[in-house]
Amino acid sequence: MLSSTATRLYGAFMLGDLVGAAAQTYVVHSFGFFWYIAVIDGLVCSILMACACWLINNNLRYYQPGKGSYLNILIWVGALAGICTFGCRWILPFLCSGTAYYNFLTNSLTIRFFINFLAVGWVGMISIIYYSQIDQKENDRRKAEAEKLARDAELYNLRQQLQPHFLFNSLNSINALIGFKPDEARRMIHQLSDFLRGTLKKDDQQQVPLADELQHLNLYLDIEKVRFGHRLQTEISCDGKSDTAILPSMLLQPIVENAIKFGLYDTTGDVVVSIRAEIEGNYLILMVQNPYDPQTSRPKKGTGFGLRGVQRRLYLLFARNDLMETHANDNIFTTIIKVPQL
């Protein structure tokens, strides 16, 4: 991109130089000199100026002065303007003879110097602004890529923490079932295998349809139902529009796991975990509810990896902290997730 934009910038400078050559030719001719002399004067001065402009532009392409280095650029512009003027003073007398023209040339050296100074200085100023903007865009792009890599790495780390956390609990349950319920242990191993296989397939899918997420969630619930038997019951309801809504993959599983943890670990009766999904405006609203015993649980604090991990994922993906909320009323703990539909 830099080479193409630099080529366009060079083209603009060359066009300006040709316009300047034509203007200088006309001015010299207006002083009574022949067109031949005027054209030679305009071409020589424009070629020297073009070389000076190319030199300062090409150097500023690779070197951007700091805040305290603009005086050096000013000195550099003055030196290039002096070289252009000196070149005109020594080259033009060999190409254009005559006392009248020589006197005109020597008397106009001061004006020629300031014209060269303004032209080279203008090119230098445009080059500084132009290349500094390109550098800023490149820095912003690198910064955005670095932030994205860091965000993706943190998301991946959260995903990797989730699997061992669930796997540890499942293996403990399988170990407990092997001795007196080997058939259920074998079935749970197959269910766990299907769940982990589906998890691996989702590693490269950041957003998935709700229908796929619920299908994967049912594999997890089947494993948990083997662990807790008839005590765990689930209710899943979705409106007609929410099936195709998208959400971050593996978002529901830690929320439901949290609901099972607070609903069953500290109680002895049957527990119903309710999962509802609906579309409201541009949001997919997910609500997970479970009963809890306020004497033994503290759900208001949101303890545990599950809810913290979900909230962190939502912030990393959408840069918002208001997409998850929890409520505890009448011994019912409710987690509400709002997923923006972009």
Textual characterization of the structure:
By secondary structure, this protein is of the alpha+beta class. The protein has 9 helices and 7 strands, in the order H-H-H-H-H-H-E-H-E-E-H-E-E-H-E-E. The protein has helices at 2-30, 35-62, 70-95, 99-107, 109-178, 182-201, 210-228, 252-264, 305-318; strands spanning 207-209, 232-238, 246-248, 271-280, 283-291, 324-329, 332-340. It has a 5-stranded mixed β-sheet with strand order 2-4-5-7-6. A two-stranded antiparallel ribbon has the order 1-3. Helix 2 packs antiparallel against helix 3 (70-95) and helix 2 runs parallel beside helix 5 (109-178). It starts with a helix and ends with a strand. Mean pLDDT is 80; it is low at 299-303.
One letter per element, helices H and strands E, the order comes to HHHHHHEHEEHEEHEE
The proportion of strand residues reads 5-15%
Q: How many angstroms does the end-to-end distance come to?
A: 30 Å
Number of strands: 7
CATH class of the largest domain: Alpha Beta
CATH architecture of the largest domain: 2-Layer Sandwich
Shape: rod-shaped
> Looking across the biggest beta sheet, what order are the strands in?
2-4-5-7-6
User: What ranges have pLDDT less than 50 throughout 5 or more consecutive residues?
Assistant: 299-303
Number of helices: 9
Look at the structure and give the mean pLDDT: 80
- Per CATH, the superfamily of the largest domain is Histidine kinase-like ATPase, C-terminal domain
Radius of gyration: 38 Å
Alpha-beta content class: alpha+beta
